[in-house]
Amino acid sequence: MATAPVHKPKPDEELLSPDFMTKLEQLEILSRKIFLGRMKGERRSKRKGESVEFADYRNYVVGDDLRFLDWNIYARLERLLLKLFMEEEDLNVTVLFDVSKSMDWGSPHKGLYIKRVAAALAYIGLCNYDRVSLYGYNSSLVHEMRAVRGRRLVSQVIGFLRRIQFEGHSDLTAVGKRFALRHTGKGVVIVLSDFLDKGGYADGIRYLLSRDLDLYAIQVLSPEEVDPQLAGDLRLKDVEDDDTAEVTISKPLLDKYKANLKSYCTDLKNHCTRRGICYLFTTTRVEFDTLVLAYLRQRGLLR
Length: 303
Description:
alpha/beta, Rossmann fold, 33% helix
């Protein structure tokens, strides 16, 4: 069996450099969805609170905190009005990342690449005091770190990501169903995967959308998958389920493979776009910092 060169990440390989972390501290994760029934471009809503930024009034009802009554208006109009203030909303940020065996591949390595993306998104969320959850999945949710907040937990998140191994086969349908049953709140969910799932992606995405999540799909492939450098008679083996096939690699066959892959990725993109999901395709040849600092900002996930 012929194999392509694979860069195996070292156990102590750095996920985020100190210089890059400094750049990430200037960013925040945005939600395009509705919070408390209001469209919002940033995580703020009109709620009664104790911040100093005034927003609006509403009529007093029994049980309201008397500290927020505007007595000046009462003196003029004899009406009891309650002051409302701008208050920051909690943002739930969830990263679902593929840890199946197919991610343990490529040069640069696909698994290390998505770990770095997950680490960067988690770090941005923690710096902004968002509620961050991380789930590694294959045929189920096999690794999880739920609802962590605050910069003090960065080292725990990095350690959690570094320890994860890539194994098993992916099943986005089962994972999407399990995730939807467990999580009822709104928030931003970023799925990191190659999406090369034999069971397809449509049902898994449908389950995730059932929770009205602000969903992002980032498809990551290796250069060897996009443009395989193969020739001759080969026995090819599926790294996830050990299926084998004997083929003679020729230029027409490679051209057909590339056309099929392009069609598959285009179908995934169209499927996401029609459902309001932000889709982004990348290969690991794209510099990791370029993906985060440029592409994810262009897609509106970060600012």
